[in-house]
UniProtKB/TrEMBL annotation:
GO MF annotations, alphabetized: hydrolase activity, acting on ester bonds
Lineage: Bacteria, Pseudomonadati, Pseudomonadota, Alphaproteobacteria, Rhodobacterales
Top-rank taxon: Bacteria
Chain ranges of the SGNH hydrolase-type esterase domain: 6-197
Species the sequence originates in: Rubellimicrobium roseum
Signal peptide extent: none
Name of the protein this chain belongs to: Lipolytic enzyme, G-D-S-L
SUPFAM superfamilies listed in its UniProt record: SGNH hydrolase
């Protein structure tokens, strides 16, 4: 049975748009996009590795050092397998105001994760696997956590071409999520249920062709 590992942040975890700051919530398995993809990939096992707050490269001074995806991706790739494909959907948290990251800096963090996943150590461990790099849709600076993303929309709107170039250079597949979905106006960061269903369907289609 082929295995798909979905590595990401709260939007891979299934966090719904935030209404009350500090409350934990998660969409059910019928809604989360990795599970939607799983239903469209018969015979596949799908592993969900989404951590709310995860970045591609930054230890978070508020949420903790474990938010750094560089360590997280190593743990995930050594915890599961052998995998046949992996989705990588990160970058939303990297544009938080407190990190002060340029679009190029965010892309550099993604490059580091691709280098880990597609490097000899992990590829040999799993017998080779393909990576689908997904660029998150641009954020909106509104809602209960808008203060954490001041100036982030301009940065996030510049990520797609940088991600695409990375995918081409590293030999990964690429999906611009903004061509399929958009973030919720409720909090400007997370996906509504309808967006999860749409993204899951497209991911399944792309992975099925890998």
């Amino acid at each position: 049975m082929p295995i798909l590992l979905c590595f990401g942040d709260s939007n891979t975890h299934g966090t719904p748009p935030i209404v009350t700051r500090g409350e934990y919530a998660r969409f059910d398995a019928d809604t989360r996009w990795p599970r939607v993809a799983a239903r469209r990939l018969p015979g596949w096992e799908v592993v969900e590795e989404g951590l709310p707050g995860r970045t591609a490269q930054f230890p978070d001074p508020v949420m903790g050092a474990h938010m750094d995806g560089r360590e997280g991706i190593k743990i995930a790739l050594q915890s599961h397998g052998p995998i046949d494909a992996m989705t990588l959907l990160l970058g939303t948290n990297d544009v938080k105001t407190r990190f002060g990251a340029t679009p190029e800096k965010v892309a550099a963090g993604i490059a580091g994760l691709l280098d880990i996943a597609m490097g000899p150590e992990m590829q040999t461990r799993h017998g080779g696997f393909r990576v689908l790099l997904i660029c998150p849709p641009p954020v909106l600076e509104q809602g209960p956590i808008a203060s954490e993303f001041t100036g982030a929309r301009a940065v996030s709107r510049q990520l797609a071409p940088l991600y695409r170039a990375l995918a081409e250079a590293r030999g990964a597949a690429f999906l611009d999520a903004a061509e399929v979905i958009e973030v919720s106006p409720q909090d400007g960061i997370h996906f509504e249920a309808e967006a999860h269903h749409a993204l899951g369907a497209v991911v399944a289609e792309v992975v099925g062709k890998l």
